[in-house]
Design brief:
By secondary structure, this protein is an alpha+beta fold. The protein is about 15% helix and about 40% strand. Strand 7 and strand 8 form a beta hairpin.
């Protein structure tokens, strides 16, 4: 597949705090003919239920939410710094209004595990949804968390098994 090599999640040398929180990622779901992607900087990776997992948070108001709800798979794609502007666009523009891949000159492809990602990525995790739950105000043990939800648009958390990882 392109110039990617399959790696096990345990072999990845990347720092997840930097990858997700600082470098950001594209969360993508759908089919080759109909998909959407969005930038995210909240999430994580770890082990749960004896599986290598990731967890991501998506607001129901986001267009990508519809694609994640309708599909079993999603991908997390990580890029070099030269793609920062593309990530900014994918995080600030809606796929309802523009073709983000076209505007950002990103080339979509189907991963070996049948997820949708982009050839320009340097690391791609293809993930299968295992669990979803909605964040709620009454579950916030630290009231300062509510500052992130002044408009009431609480995230849905998805826990997903990492079924394939590829990197350049």
């Amino acid at each position: 597949m392109l110039q990617f090599q399959t790696v096990s999640p345990e072999e990845m040398q990347e720092n997840p705090f930097r990858l997700i929180g600082k470098d950001w990622m594209l969360v993508t779901a759908g089919t080759p003919d109909s998909y959407n992607t969005m930038t995210a900087s909240w999430g994580g990776v770890g082990v749960l239920w004896n599986k290598n997992v990731c967890f991501v948070f998506i607001r129901p108001s986001r267009y990508t939410y519809e694609f994640i709800e309708q599909n079993d798979l999603l991908t997390l794609s990580f890029f070099e710094e030269q793609y920062r502007n593309a990530l900014k666009i994918c995080g600030s523009k809606s796929g309802r209004e523009i073709d983000k891949a076209k505007v950002c000159a990103l080339t979509s492809f189907v991963t070996d595990a049948q997820g949708i990602s982009f050839e320009e990525a340097r690391l791609v995790l293809t993930c299968k949804k295992l669990y979803a739950c909605d964040l709620t105000p009454d579950a916030c043990l630290d009231p300062s968390i509510l500052q992130n939800y002044q408009n009431g648009d609480f995230h849905r958390m998805y826990v997903c098994e990492i079924i394939n990882a590829v990197q350049k």
